[in-house]
Design goal:
CATH topology of the domain at 83-154 and 261-391: MetI-like fold
Distance between the termini: 54 Å
Strand content: 5-15%
Main location: membrane
Number of strands: 8
CATH class of the domain at 83-154 and 261-391: Mainly Alpha
Subcellular location: Cell inner membrane; Cell membrane
Pfam family, one: BPD_transp_1
Largest sheet: 4 strands, antiparallel
Keywords: Amino-acid transport, Cell membrane, Membrane, Transmembrane, Transmembrane helix, Transport
Family: Belongs to the binding-protein-dependent transport system permease family. HisMQ subfamily.
Radius of gyration: 29 Å
CATH superfamily of the domain at 83-154 and 261-391: MetI-like
């Protein structure tokens, strides 16, 4: 009796090399072997070239004296500091400008993105002009403009422009009063931390209450009251105080206060303005992706325009906004390396620039710098993915 006569067809036999599963495994093995061979060749070739030039490798240079100045540092720095301290200075300077840029670009980008959808003709057109101009001019040119054409064109020190609150601006930067907290101010930070925990708990409770009863709670005003109330209470009880040291003009420069160099101001401002234009387009696209029926439903409930946007439209648009927003955060952090072009002492300028040139350890310096930016990107992606999981729509 044949197989067909038995009521079923036998599966056709496939040759060993024509089996898609076997073939896929073979392709992966071949690619892996080629990749490993390429890496081995690169490492061997590099080692041979270094040996031919009598160059040593290793990270022992990190504990040697750097011997150069850094114009702006969040840590104590002198010519006698070590190269690992130079690395930390560049790292912190990069984190500082990236953090300020992300916060400011997010606020400005959301504002411009919503303004582009405004029913006010002038507001929407101005937002459109801003986006189309800023995002089509290379960032490096914008940094040159803010640094050379704006900040360096400011008056000299003796002709400084006076700003409110004992602040001054000139071609050497912006000078503002320096806050000097006393020893008891640590209790105020403890109070602020407790207040933030209370705000988080309040928001969680208010969300549960809204879902259960449909009644809204004034979260924003109550959160402000908690922050200022708890922090102020700890401030009064602990007897903490803060004094401000204003900048004072002396013979050649200002003394005292807090100096923000023009390189830092130009880089932070340029990154904010440039990235905000792309965030604005992301926000506009996310809002427009929300079904029109959601807006009409919110209108039928009698919600005001601001409430419709805050409670209905933006929460649904966030699932579209967050993925490209993450990319913009990564771009901003990596674009901070352009600060080397205007002399801002960020990581690439200090460590992959000056330190590399003085030590000759190109492989080590570049490898560490690449690893740092990789960690920045992975950490930012992890945080944004966690936030995306928190705000995504739950299907029922």
């Amino acid at each position: 009796m044949t197989t067909r006569e038995m009521g079923h067809d036998a599966a056709p036999r496939v040759s060993f090399f024509n089996d898609p599963v076997i073939r896929g495994i073979i392709y992966q093995i071949v690619v892996a072997v080629i990749l490993v061979g390429f890496i081995v060749w690169i490492v061997g070739n590099t080692a041979a070239n270094l040996a031919a030039q009598n160059k040593t490798t290793g990270f022992d240079f990190l504990w040697k004296t750097a011997g150069f100045d850094i114009s702006f540092s969040l840590l104590p720095w002198s010519r006698g500091s070590y190269y690992w301290e130079a690395f930390l200075v560049g790292l912190l300077n990069t984190l500082l400008v990236a953090f300020i840029g992300i916060v400011c670009a997010t606020v400005l980008g959301f504002t411009i993105g919503i303004a582009r959808l405004s029913s006010n003709f002038i507001v929407s057109r101005l937002a459109t002009v801003y986006v189309e101009i800023i995002r089509n001019i290379p960032l490096l040119l914008q940094l040159f403009f803010w640094y050379f054409a704006v900040l360096k064109a400011m008056p000299a020190v003796r002709e400084s422009i006076a700003l409110p609150l004992d602040s001054f601006i000139n071609q050497r930067g912006i000078f503002v009063p320096r806050p000097i907290p006393d020893e008891q101010f640590g209790f105020v930070w403890i109070g602020l931390a407790l207040a933030i925990l209370g705000v988080v708990a309040l928001r969680h409770w208010a969300k549960k209450r809204l879902e259960a009863t449909g009644q809204r709670f004034p979260v924003f005003l109550t959160s402000l009251a908690i922050l200022f109330g708890v922090t102020g209470l700890f401030f009064v009880v602990s007897g903490a105080s803060v004094t401000f040291e204003p900048p004072v003009l002396e013979r050649f420069n200002f003394k005292g206060g807090l100096a923000l160099p023009p390189e830092f101001v130009a880089l932070a401002f340029g990154l904010t303005i440039y990235t905000a234009a792309f965030i604005a387009e992301t926000v506009r696209g996310g809002i427009q992706s929300v079904n029109r029926g959601q807006t009409e439903a919110a209108q039928s409930l009698g919600l005001k325009e601001n409430d419709r946007l805050r409670l209905v439209i933006v929460p649904q648009a966030m699932r579209v906004i967050i993925p490209p927003l993450t990319s913009q955060y990564l771009n901003l952090t990596k674009n901070s390396s352009l600060g080397a072009a205007i002399g801002y002492p960020e990581l690439v300028n200090v460590f992959a620039g000056t330190a590399l040139n003085q030590t000759g350890r190109a492989i080590e310096c570049i490898a560490i710098t690449m690893l740092v930016y990789l960690c920045f990107s992975l950490l930012t992606s992890a945080i944004m993915n966690w936030y995306n999981a928190r705000v995504k729509l739950v299907e029922r």
